[in-house]
Amino acid sequence: PFDKCNAPIEAGPCKEPVPRYGYDAVTGTCKPFTYGGCDGNANKYETHEKCEYAIAKCQNKAPFDKCYAAIAGGPCRGAVERYGYNVVTGACEHFTYGGCAGNENSYEMLEDCESATADCTNTAHFDKCNSPIDKGTCDAELARYGYDAAKGVCKLFTYGGCDGNANKYGTHEQCETATATCPNKGTSSMYLELYVPSQRLW
């Protein structure tokens, strides 16, 4: 019988370039590979989500890593609003969860996602000292603090709730701590007088 938890990834003898995902028992993760179109075995799935769902109970599955997990909508067709951590941008973003499968990179609130992944350091394309303050493309009005590289201070801004970048912090203190070592950081004494009062935008 087919052992989905230990079967090798087999391209098969044919030469059709069919993109598939297979479970790698050594690393405990689903990986993309090119299936030839014939023979091989059942360790091939059309999407990353289907592969993850099929092998969810494998004992050799790699533990969930909140900082590197993919955002998985799942194979079902529900429309549940969720937030997930994007490993590429290093920021939490909105996505639609189908209601089944998926993974643990799924949070009901943006704030929950940001809090859970605050210690993730894999922001490969994010320069906390020089990234612009970006309100994103959505229309929510969320009070966030961003680092203004030109002035070297953290400032209050309105975040739209999706997209943008990782230059957004829930509190002034979080922003100050994250950017404390930036070489272009200035003194924020004047800024504190302006922004420390509990000023809310919603």
What descriptive keywords fit this protein?
alpha+beta; 202 residues; Factor Xa Inhibitor; Kunitz_BPTI_sf; two-stranded antiparallel sheet; disordered C terminus; single chain; elongated; 21% strand
Describe this structure in words.
- This protein is α+β, with helices and mostly antiparallel strands and 202 residues long.
- It has 3 domains: 1-62, Factor Xa Inhibitor; 64-125, Irregular (Factor Xa Inhibitor); 142-195, Factor Xa Inhibitor.
- The chain contains 4 helices and 6 strands.
- It has helices at 48-54, 110-116, 172-178, 189-195; strands at residues 18-24, 29-35, 80-86, 91-97, 142-148, 153-159.
- It is elongated, with a radius of gyration of 21 Å.
- The termini are far apart.
* Assigned CATH class of the largest domain: Few Secondary Structures
Question: For the terminal residues, how far apart are their CA atoms?
Answer: 59 Å
Give the CATH topology of the largest domain: Factor Xa Inhibitor
> Percent of residues in beta strands?
15-25%
Reported for the largest beta sheet, the result is: 2 strands, antiparallel
Number of helices: 4
- The CATH superfamily of the largest domain is Pancreatic trypsin inhibitor Kunitz domain
Give the SSE string.
EEHEEHEEHH
Strands side by side in the biggest sheet: 1-2
Structural class: alpha+beta
Q: Mean pLDDT, nearest integer?
A: 81
Number of domains: 3
